[in-house]
């Protein structure tokens, strides 16, 4: 069971996301019985090879949230330098607080309790548009992004085309909000 601090904070963040959702992002707990497990839908950023796709993901929060960061994983193939083949997202904001033992990122870029689910999701959307190839989670994707950009983009287009088309985005979002609101 989550601590009352984690539950209060996650409920507060869910309300904020529901009342003022960032464009192209929908997220919330799968069930009111377990606020530590969320699903999210991220619309591929315009002007990128991800445009036109909708990418489902899951967020798993630790019991001591917000002191420790959640983990985030895409549910399906996402070819990207900062996404492990398993779908696990690798960006600074999801790394534990403190100094980076590998010296790739500053402590200020890593998780802190002032961060939020909204900030994570916006950071992931930005990551889709602008990969960080200095410390890749997927070395092959990073290599292709650096050396064969056209092939990299073709691979992304092919996976994005398999995703839900953009006009369905509003329907999916409304169904998700209705489902969570009726529990």
UniProtKB/TrEMBL annotation:
It is an enzyme of class 2 (transferase). Its EC number is 2.3.2.23. The keyword ATP-binding applies. The keyword Transferase applies. The active site is at 90 (glycyl thioester intermediate). Keywords: ATP-binding, Nucleotide-binding, Thioester bond, Transferase, Ubl conjugation pathway. It catalyses: S-ubiquitinyl-[E1 ubiquitin-activating enzyme]-L-cysteine + [E2 ubiquitin-conjugating enzyme]-L-cysteine = [E1 ubiquitin-activating enzyme]-L-cysteine + S-ubiquitinyl-[E2 ubiquitin-conjugating enzyme]-L-cysteine. Belongs to the ubiquitin-conjugating enzyme family. PANTHER family: UBIQUITIN-CONJUGATING ENZYME E2. This is Ubiquitin-conjugating enzyme E2 2.
